[in-house]
Amino acid sequence: MHGVKLCHIWMITQEGLKQNRKEAAMGSVIKLVQQGEIGIVILEDREYKNTFSKTFVKELKETFGEISNNMKLKVVLVHGYDNYFCCGGTKEELVELSKSITNGTGEVALAELDFFDLFIRCELPVIAAMQGHAMGGGLSLGCFADVIVLGEECVYNAVFMKYGFTPGMGATYIIPRKLGEALGNEMLFTAQNYYGSDLKERGAPVKIVKKQEVIEVALSIARELAERPRLSLEVLKEHLNRQIKKELKDVVARENAMHRITFTQPEVQNKIEELFGN
Questions:
Q1: Would you place residue 26 in the very low, low, confident or very high pLDDT band (cuts 50, 70, 90)?
Q2: What proportions of the chain, in percent to the nearest 5, are helix, strand and coil?
């Protein structure tokens, strides 16, 4: 039965690719496929396992630029590939950020992290179908979606403190807000791995289903939203997210200030090297 569902999901996505190839923005690691009034963003950086490589970030921003210019779309669905949704910063980026902050040149590096809230900045409702692991900044990225679907067998964590530096990318705000304050704060402090089933048992107020059902469930939600008028969806999204947008700038400024303190610790660079490996 599970195999049949996985095959069905694969066929849906592949059929969309075939039918909409002319309309799709096909990047090297990020693909945008249009299925009717639904824009499906596929995160597929196999080389870096959907971490924030320069190509990943560049193409993600370009893709959401394409979406903002496509008046035929009403809703956006984002999913990853295989066992990966999005896994946060690369080793090189974290080392560079740590060194730049330590050397007093971190303002530029911090300013370049301007993609983490793309989902909330998008005028259309965004559904994050986190069918694979989401870690650190990758979990934060997904939590900025309007609708979140998690997989029971997938791993979700706020890994920042495992390396010894405080969370960034709006994680200190959006993870507790979307997954629950007590649970979110615990995740931020401990940096432990939580399976989707753990979050479900702890009462996380998001949809959590079997891994093989995540994309199918998300597509069902997307189709339902696509039946609504685009303008109504835009107006409602702006209203529901007004408080987040209002508070986020100050949150990120505070997170960056914490980075200037915590990234300068010698053990942080050592932890990054040690935990990422060679």
A1: confident
A2: 55, 15, 30
